[in-house]
Amino acid sequence: MQGLILEGTTEDSIRLSNDIEHVADLQPRQVRVEVRAAGVCGSDLSCVHGKYYMPTPLVPGHEAAGVVVETGSAVTYCEVGDHVVLSTFGNCGHCEVCEGGDPGNCGALGALAQPYKEGDQPLYNFANIGAFIQETIVSENQCIPIPKEVPLASAALIGCGVMTGAGAVFNRAQVRIGDTCVVIGAGGVGLNVIQAAALSGASQIIAIDRAPTKERMAMEFGATDFLLADGDDFDAVAEVKALSKGGVNHSFEVVGSTALLADAIKMTRAGGNVCAVGVPDLTATVTYGFQDLHQNKNLMGIRAGGGKPRRDFRLLADLYLKGKLKLDEMISNTAGLDGLQAAFDALKEGAEARTVLLPHGE
Ligand SMILES: [Zn+2]
Ligand SMILES: [Zn+2]
């Protein structure tokens, strides 16, 4: 089958292959999914640039939705024909952490696997999925059925961008009615922080981005103010403090910049939440002034929105079907698997929200 293979740490070390196979038949709790849609997320770019320190060769991609085509002998979470959103949580499903309701904290997350091969060469998968391919094999824990009324290209975004952004608001910061927020970075994840904060009743949502094109979408998704990070004179901390009369209740750093995370701490008022949503190079170090955090502020590391995928994906799909959560509006482009480089270029320019790749064509 067709899929993309990453062989190094540069964008030109990705190639399209027509000869990828699965290495083995399904294990009892595994599911084979035809990938119908796979979003291109900032983490895909970080993966390709080596910032996740993944071994290669690997099949990239991690934000996907598709149709179940085969289930292992013990699978009970989904059936052949189900439309599913894939979760990046390759959690075990039965340790005390999973059973305690925190699949995102399971020790099995991040375990490496080589479910594919090209000829004799085994291939790793990114984020327990490897979604830029026509069919993937995942654990049933990672297959969350959703109503068939949700278009699969839109549903794919739930798997990462929507869960990461909305989950930071709903699960971790727990924004309440009347709260004030700043969202640094208004791309695919930032827009979801914005719309979830708006759904939660935030009274002020200040969006900051370096691309002027982001203003329109940020405001449509519920931002009350937009600050263009432009020019040497721009002082984000001072601007946010002025707009929020001293600092916000919740700051969300979505870019994955350690300097911006340090700024976010300063933008947050005493007792507020500082939410580290964006992912820098995994070996990065953050430096901040002790006094900036000292006033009872909570600095939160947030991986994938603190999600509980089997509960949250259905909730997010339901909010979409009720017209309360925007998904379709986030898709700026669709393309075949050969469209990845153009999607990366658009991401780097900050020009758009999401490109969704369709491994079986339009
Ligand atoms: Zn577990
Ligand atoms: Zn992602």
Shape estimate: globular
Instruction: Bin the helical content.
Output: 25-40%
Low-pLDDT sequence parts: none
Number-wise, the strands total 19
Decide which structural class fits the backbone. Answer: alpha/beta
Give the termini separation: 17 Å
* CATH fold naming of the largest domain: Quinone Oxidoreductase, Chain A, domain 1
Quick summary:
With 362 residues, the chain is α/β, with parallel strands linked by helices. The protein has helices at 42-48, 96-99, 152-173, 188-199, 214-220, 236-243, 258-267, 290-294, 309-321, 340-349, and strands at 3-6, 14-17, 20-22, 30-40, 58-59, 63-71, 83-86, 116-118, 121-125, 135-139, 143-145, 180-184, 204-209, 225-228, 248-253, 268-276, 298-301, 331-335, 354-357. The radius of gyration is 20 Å and the shape is globular.
Summary tags:
6-stranded parallel β-sheet, binds zinc ion, Rossmann fold, Quinone Oxidoreductase, Chain A, domain 1, 7-stranded mixed β-sheet, 362 residues, alpha/beta, 19 strands, globular
How would you describe the overall organization of this protein?
This protein has 362 residues and is of the alpha/beta class. Helices cover 27% and strands 27% of the residues. It has helices at 42-48, 96-99, 152-173, 188-199, 214-220, 236-243, 258-267, 290-294, 309-321, 340-349; strands spanning 3-6, 14-17, 20-22, 30-40, 58-59, 63-71, 83-86, 116-118, 121-125, 135-139, 143-145, 180-184, 204-209, 225-228, 248-253, 268-276, 298-301, 331-335, 354-357. Strands 4, 6, 7, 10, 11, 18 and 19 form a 7-stranded mixed beta sheet that branches. α6 (236-243) packs parallel to α7 (258-267). The mean pLDDT is 95. The site of one zinc ion has 7 residues, from α2.
